[in-house]
Amino acid sequence: MALEEQSRFAFDIDLDAPKVRVPLRTTGSDRCDSHFILDFGHFTLHTAESQSDEKRQNLYSRFYISGRDIAAFFTDCGSDFGSCSMLKPNFDSQIMSSPIGNKDENMCYLIDRCGMAVLVNQIKVPHPSYPSTLISIQVPNLGIHFSSERNFRIMELLSLLYETMGTCSQPTTDSLQSKPVPWSPSDLATEGRILVWKGIGNSVATWSPCFLVLSGSYLYVFESAKSQSYQRYLSMAGRQVLDVPSTYIGGSAFCIALSTKRMDIQKTHLNQEYTILQYPLQSQEGSDAKKSLTFRDGN
User: Fold this and answer.
1) What's the pTM value of the predicted model, to 2 decimals?
2) What PANTHER family does this protein map onto (predicted)?
3) What average pLDDT is seen over the chain?
4) CATH number, domain at 272?
């Protein structure tokens, strides 16, 4: 009865899938030499009624997806493909010729045109004994081609994609220098270590390398000197800078504790209320770091 009361629907979709085109050109040239084409072909999607009277089949809604003319290939622009320009598009010309022509001699296939069928079964009512989704895929024929020419073009394509992603993900030096950051200009920058609390209930303390930048009355903690963003920061206004005896911190020397509370560290235990830092051992930078932090705490 529950299944009979379930809402029913049906749909039938027929569409031409998109084609992805990647122009390839020789370095320094304003004209494409070839294109990589990823053609997703033609797809149809529709609901399908179960042809079985079994209880298991009646529990599922069935969706049938079929595709054809799916292919991946390289195509040459040819000497007559004059309108294929990445730098100087010709707006006065008519519609630009498509690089996906009918001349197979200009095509270098990686994957032959093929079809596929996908059957998706989605359960109507959740049942502990049956999976919620069943997917079956059929690819009758799949032709994949390899050759030295294809390998060269694939490497050229990967190199282009790698350079493009690298350019997008890595900002230029000029942009980094022109972009204002809160820790610039810095009064002090030095390597160090910070005590990090981990484990269950943050009960275990371990040292973690860091890079410390003091700018104005703020202390910024970076993962390393090359980091573009800080992990944490704190205001030194009203903070007390305390020397931490090595016996209090597992024998580690040249350590200081930053705290907002005015208390004698000899009479309390170190905990997460303190920011524990270790500056460079017996170095001028370490001495300068301690002096600068002590000056910022207002004492």
Assistant:
1) 0.43
2) OS02G0470600 PROTEIN (PTHR45523:SF2), TETRATRICOPEPTIDE REPEAT (TPR)-CONTAINING PROTEIN-RELATED (PTHR45523)
3) 74
4) 2.30.29.30
